[in-house]
Each structure stands twice: as C-alpha cells, then as structure tokens.
C-alpha cells in the first residue's frame, strides 16, 4: 500500500466528505484501529504515533483507491470524528474500534461496546493493556442496557453527551439467538415487534470472543496461518490464501504457476462447498428437510476430495507462505473430474425440490430488499451485494491467482431481495464448476513450495490484500515493523457488514422473515467476532 495520507482529526470529516462526493469514494473497504504508541525521541516527522485509524476507500465508479490515516496522542480521552454519516459501514466498524481501543467517535449515534461485556474494564487491543489484570472470570450475566450515548460536537469545540433510548418500556422485545440454530452462529438479535412486524433490531455480536487479531501480534507469521481457517470456516482456503498472498506480496515472493492453479481450484471447490451448505441450511430454516439432505450428501464429496490432499475437511491448513503444504494427491484430478459432471447432472433436483416450490418462492420473493446504494455504503459484498446489482467480485475487480486466465461470468441480479441472494449463489455453483473445468487439466508442472527462510520477517510497511471469499471480500490489513511477528493484523470480515445491514433490511418485515433474510445473507459468526 503506497502513500497512506495522514489527516489531522480536525480536518478528517471534511476531507472524507470530499473524497466521497468529489472522488466518488463510496465503498469503505476496511477500517482498522491502531495503537502506534507514545511519541519517542528521534522519531522521523512522518512516524505514526498515538491511537488512530487506517481507512481504505474505493470508488465503485472509477475503481480508484485511497488510503487515509488519522490519530490522536491523547490516550486518556482519545476522540476522533465519526464518518458513520458518510458510510454506513463505519457504524459497526467504529464501535469495534471503540470496544478494543477506547477511541470515542464524535457524532457516532451509538457508542456502546460491540463485542465485549458492558462491564469490561480496559481496551484489550491497546499495546499497554493487560486484559486479565482487571477482568477476573465472571460467572454472572451482564446487565442488558437499553440506553446508548451519542457525542455531539458543540460550535465552541466542546463535546456534549446525548443519551438515546434503544428500547422503551412500552416496546415488546424478543431475543432471536444467541442459540446457534436461530442465527447461524452464536449471535444475539434483540427484536422490537409491533404484532408480528419488526420495528427495529439491535445486534450483539460478542458471544465467541476468539481474540484472533490480538493473538496474531504475539505469533510468528507461519503461526498466524493456523488461525485464518477458523474465522469463516466455510472459506478456510480463501482466508488463508489472502493472508499468504499479503505476506508474499510484502516480501516480494512470487509463487509458481502450479501453486496459483492449485490455490484457484481449491478456492472454487471451497465456494461450491460453502454454497451447498448455504442451500442446505436455508432450506432447513424454511422447513424443507429433503433439500437439506441433498446439499449435505453432495458436499461430502467435496470434503472427501479436500481430506485426501489436505488431511482436513473443515480446517484445511493447506496454503503456506510461498506455496501449499503438500502436492496434490494422485487421485485429485480424477475425483474432481468425476464430481463436476455428477453435480451438474443432479443440481436440477435441487431446483425441483426447493427453487420451484411455491412456499419457498413466497417466503423469499420480495422479502428483505437491500438497495444497491445501501449494499455499497454498508460494504455488503459477495452474493448479497451482487444480488442488489453491485458488481463487486474481487476476482474481476482485482484478479489474483489465475482468475485472469479463465472465462467466467459475474452473477449479478438487481432485485436485491432474499430470492435474488439465493439465486446468485445457486448460479455461482455453476460458474465455479466452469472455472475448475478450465483449470483441472492444465495444472502446470513446477514446485508446490518456494524455499523460505526458517524465520520470516516482513519488511516494514502497511499492506492490504483481498480475495473473493465465499461470502464476499475477505481482506487482510498488515502493518509490519520488520519483526518476526506482525505489529497489527486486521481481517476484513465478510460477515460484519452483512450483520450491520440486518436492521435496515428487516424493518417492516415479519418476524418469520428474519429467519429467511438471515439465511440468505449467509454470514458466519466466528468471522464477525474475531
């Protein structure tokens, strides 16, 4: 990443508004909290210091990209202007930064923690914080708070607190989740109902607490790879592909064409695997148990192929820095070439049993509409964005692997409803098979692993790499200070933008529609609560 521009906090909002309006930077790709520490003697003038943010922006009109950073040296009361009124994606992202770094965003309408308990002491992603010191193991439940704080900037530069009520005493509020079957992972939605109609939704994402980004700061680069498969576990290959590519790009490592072909094929098999599970779980959510068994039956065949080469079915541990863990199993090509005609010949049964079902159509068509503008401003990429008419496929926008050598269609629908989100993924299964067919007989000879040093040090700098995951753009933001461990490793979740849009999508829908909408958004919760 070249030329990250520093903007003083006082000028940030005006400059971000200019970038959005004049340079059409309508897509906030990544917002990463940072702790650059205290100023030190001998610092170069442009050395980042303090608590701050790195913003990565892109224009969906011109394709131009920009990187901006800002910071405050006040660690006791760190304040930065919010950009949540410019991009809706900043809403949850700024709450995440407040939760982990304690940065207060002036103008943000909801300054509550997003993941940690309300009574958590300290900010665990700060370099000088010891989370265990002030937070003993608590066996009691946290108190649910129905008020939040908005901080407004007065004309004279002072800040005033404005208390907002989330749910009043007269509202009827029900919990959806955090039990897994309700929300595709341990996610809690508090839903205010007027009869059966949804009035508003408050999402609580903090029921996993993996701390993966924090753990990465004390691990060597090869050790960090083990954690990526466990984020979105239905995009394990793709997640790890992104991190390996980011490190390789930073170190100037060029992997062999054989590795590029293998990684691309594995990514597409993973996409089919994920979409088959999406089909199965959505069908089960809506009561179609036969369809559920169809999808699981055929997904097993992909997992068998993975297991033979990688040794794993869900957590694959396959991509490495400079290549892949082991060469393809001798049966790999044969089994893939048998699987594709099999799935292509049987997928019509999926459509007969579910797609053509009048109940499924009535539950999905016209339900949970997300406009193209909202998809972009929330950063809802992947099948969700493409169902709303936004051509956001990373494989087309910024080709990697061997996607520039294959011919495939980007599946785009314009309705933006649950039905369109469903059909995008069903059509993408066919496109993934087309991609694999073009590659499977043309895998070139060559090394499957480049020779690497025993200890890997990434050159000093900031780097960002993204891939098209099963659910959208999965990005890796890396800041290195030249050590054998990353200074900061932030993963752009594919699911957080989807969950942040749930309130907008569901307002006015029926409570039963929330289940259909959640199923078609297809978020995976461990990817959100990193």
From TrEMBL:
GO molecular function: NAD binding; NADH dehydrogenase (quinone) (non-electrogenic) activity; NADH dehydrogenase (ubiquinone) activity; quinone binding
InterPro entries xrefs: NADH_Q_OxRdtase_suD, NADH_quin_OxRdtase_su_C/D-like, NADH_UbQ_OxRdtase_30kDa_su, NADH_UbQ_OxRdtase_CS, NDH-1_subunit_CD, NDH1_su_D/H, NiFe-Hase_large
EC identifiers of the protein: 7.1.1.-
Membrane topology according to the record: Peripheral membrane protein
A GO CC annotation given for this chain: plasma membrane
Subunit field text: NDH-1 is composed of 13 different subunits. Subunits NuoB, CD, E, F, and G constitute the peripheral sector of the complex.
PANTHER family in UniProt: NADH DEHYDROGENASE [UBIQUINONE] IRON-SULFUR PROTEIN 2, MITOCHONDRIAL, NADH-UBIQUINONE OXIDOREDUCTASE 49 KDA SUBUNIT
Name of the molecule in the record: NADH-quinone oxidoreductase subunit C/D
